[in-house]
Amino acid sequence: MSIKTSFSIKDLENLSGIKAHTIRIWEKRYDLLVPERTDTNIRSYNLENLQKILNVSLLSENGLKVSKIAALSELELNRRVRELVVDKNSSQHAINMFKIAMLHFDQQLFDTTFNQLLTQHSFREIFLNVILNLLEEIGLLWQCNTITPAHERFISTLIQQKLLINIERVQNSKIEDKRTAVLFLPLNENHEIGLLYIHFELLLKGFKSVFLGPSVPISNLKELQNIFTDITYISYFTVEPLLEDAENYINQMSTEILLARNEKFHILGQNTKQLDKDKLPKNVFVHQNILDLIDRF
Q: Which residue in 199, 194, 160, 163 sits closest to 180, CA to CA?
């Protein structure tokens, strides 16, 4: 698996949040970065440049003027970043380190960064305040071709591993609620990290939570009604069903599964954002985010 070692100025913009125009100005005014150039004068940046612009972005966002940052040596720049992370407990720094780990396919850096976060935060805090923001940024990076599907799969797998470890720690807790939550993703939907985290939260709250995972046909859900008497269904629409098909999917779910026993269906995800809630069956609930859903239980 090849490591991406060369970045365009647009890549740096996407990864750091600093506009390409601003990066060019900083190069000219402060010699902040020294890119290589192609025969046609197109800038090319290495991993060290990327690391530096991420550090510059972090310090700049926390009030240090770029002119002051540019005057720092590499050692002093890194020291200032470390001090900032300790003093302000910067989640953005952790996100930046996770991005670097992703681009390097570096599991050790991922684990080191994660374990450092664990010294000051619970797993719940890390997921809600860092991982969710990281996943949102990764989605944007993938859409604009700054990273490949291999990068996304690598970091997603590492996050899933952390989730599964924490799920195992809580899944033997005492079940205190008679309801059963059935968590599944629609057919051809494979983005399961958000749903896995909801599974973790429900187990933590003492629910019976059954995680079916990705790409589950609606018809398969009927089998669970033969076993459990009071089911609440939960699903996450990231890429499937498509926006134009989401309402029909929900109506099918209501007709084939929910109506028989007046059961509830909770959904969230990118492809639920444009749904007209007034047109949905009364026992279907759309949530803006994970916390909104969890608070309903």
A: 199
Range 181-215 burial, b when 16+ CB lie within 10 A, else e: bbbbbbeebebbbbbbbbbbbbbbeebbbbbbebe
The number of angstroms, rounded, from the C-alpha of 27 to the middle of its chain's C-alpha atoms is 32
Note down pLDDT in tens along the chain; length 297 residues.
Answer: 456 778 899 999 999 989 999 999 999 999 988 888 888 888 899 888 988 998 898 899 888 899 999 999 988 988 888 777 666 567 888 999 999 899 889 999 999 999 999 998 999 999 999 999 999 899 888 878 888 889 999 999 999 999 999 999 988 767 766 789 999 999 999 999 999 999 999 998 888 999 999 999 999 999 999 999 889 999 999 999 998 999 999 999 999 999 999 999 999 999 999 899 888 999 999 999 999 999 888
| Residues ≥6 apart with Cβ < 8 Å to 238 | 189, 191, 194, 269, 270, 271
Pairing of strands 231-236, 264-268: parallel
Which three-class secondary structure state does DSSP give residue 65?
coil
Closest to 132 in 3D by CA, of 159, 167, 168: 159
Give the integer Cα–Cα distance in Å for 217 and 223. 11
Structure confidence by residue, pLDDT tens digits, 36-85: 888 888 889 988 898 899 889 889 988 889 999 999 998 898 888 877 76
| Domains and their CATH numbers in the chain | 1-88 (1.10.1660.10), 89-170 (1.10.1240), 174-294 (3.40.50.280)
Assigned token pair, 207: 């629910």
The candidate with the shortest Cα–Cα distance to 9, out of 58, 44, 52, 33, is: 44
- Alpha-carbon torsion (135, 139, 144, 147), positive or negative: positive
Three-state SS for 196? helix
Please state, in angstroms and rounded to a whole number, the distance separating the CA atoms of residues 17 and 227: 50
